[in-house]
Amino acid sequence: MANQKGGVGKTTTSVNIAAALSMHGQRVLVVDLDPQGNASTALATEHRGDVPDVYQVLVDDLPMADIVKQVPDMPNLFCAPATIDLAGAEIELVSLVAREARLRRALAAYDAIDLDYIVIDCPPSLGLLTVNALVAADEVMIPIQCEYYALEGLGQLLRNVDLIRAHLNPTLKLSTIVLTMYDGRTRLASQVADEVRSHFGDTVLNTVIPRSVRLSEAPSYGQSVMTYDPGSSGAMAYMDAAREIAHRAIVA
After folding, report:
1. Which segments cross the bilayer (predicted)?
2. How confident is the model at residue 80 (pLDDT cuts 50, 70, 90)?
3. Is 80 exceeded by the pLDDT of residue 51?
4. Residue 67: inside a domain
């Protein structure tokens, strides 16, 4: 899940797509690669400074299995947490061998045979943490908010994806774009949605994620919106989006 712009619903989408898939019986691991640790917070996974986290996996070669925790009350959902220590990883990775493939190596060594999906929540930047995610991933999913300047900076992200595909991860593909923060009362939201669909066609999910107070509230309670308010418009939209993603995986 990547977009170097902040505030586009990236972590919200990571957490809620993962939760929705897990509620459909899929076993899902969320890897929190953002030093802010917002995905860890939303999944009620401890991420204080003294908790083993993704930083130690990337920099110190700690096995991924040593940090993965089951999300409370969600038996099919797991989280590899991030602490603020991860903020230093961008600099510390520079001097390490195969610095761009540290996450891929860690996930390859992790016993993921029982997992159906691994969702990597990237930081809002195009540094080494995001590069590690793109090298480790099979697919890129990009959330785009239905607001002014929605496509600003997207070209740079797509160029990075192309570069990583050419040099580091030949199987990487842009599989999914999800439109977030859609406000049906405004003409702008509709115009942005139309523009994104004209550029990216079937890559864009049919489901759009609405602006929703419940989506904003849920993380402060250590929950996804799927459990915080399953009847809300945001929860139902993410459930529909997860169904689309699962269907695409079957068709593919």
Report:
1. none
2. very high
3. yes
4. yes
Among 155, 250, 140, CA closest to 199: 155
pLDDT tens, 173-215?
A: 999 999 999 998 999 999 999 999 999 999 999 999 999 999 9
Structure tokens at 86: 């991860």
| Residue type at 163 in one-letter notation | L
Interstrand relation of 77-80 and 69-70 (parallel, antiparallel or unpaired): antiparallel
29 bridge partner residues: 78, 118
Provide the domain limits for residue 78.
10-251
Tokens representing 5? 């712009």
Question: What tokens were used for 228?
Answer: 């915080």
Model confidence at 134, pLDDT cuts 50, 70, 90, reads very high
Strands (E), 15-136: 28-32, 69-70, 77-80, 117-121
Is the whole model's pTM more than 0.90, yes or no?
yes
* Residue 93 near residue 59, CB atoms below 8 Å: yes
Tell me how far apart the alpha carbons of residues 205 and 65 are, in angstroms, rounded to a whole number: 33
Q: How many domains does the chain have?
A: 1
Find the CATH number of the domain harbouring 52. Answer: 3.40.50.300
Residue 175 · residue 141 · CB < 8 Å: yes
Please report the sign of the dihedral spanned by the C-alpha atoms of residue 49, residue 130, residue 238, residue 68: negative
Residue spans of alpha helices (H) in 81-218: 89-92, 102-109, 128-136, 154-167, 187-200, 213-217
